[in-house]
Amino acid sequence: MKDVRITPIKNGTVIDHIKPGMALKILPLLNIDQDYNTGLSIAMYVQSKKHKLKDVVKIEDKELHHREVNRLAVITPNASISIIRDFKVVDKFKIELPKVIEGIVRCENINCITNGKEPVVSKLVRAQEDPVKFKCYYCGRIQNDLEKRII
Hints:
The protein is mostly beta strands. It has helices at residues 23-29, 66-75, and strands at residues 12-18, 40-47, 53-60, 80-85, 88-94, 100-102, 123-128, 133-136, 142-143.
């Protein structure tokens, strides 16, 4: 089998160990669309030493903000992020699912105060560790399929 090669980037962000098949789903979360005119490399379903398969995304000239990292955590926890400057890794960290998710995921309860006309920001709190489950801070409903309700 041939090795997959992606060229290095001078400045930007590398998101590695993304759940297989999720690379294209993270692009809208980072406001990257067909009009993005800076270098973007996507590798999907590549072999991984840690896991069987993974996706990798390299984004030139963009460093992720805290809110963007939290949005990614909802759909691909345990991915890693490397910040690249002048072709060197200057910071590397693993994405971790936060204990509280605020303003990122809509509560699935249509009657929740966060889904009404009130100016209340959604807030989900980790209710269980293994498997990880979140509940709404306001209505108490356990949440399912967080990635489908990202704001």
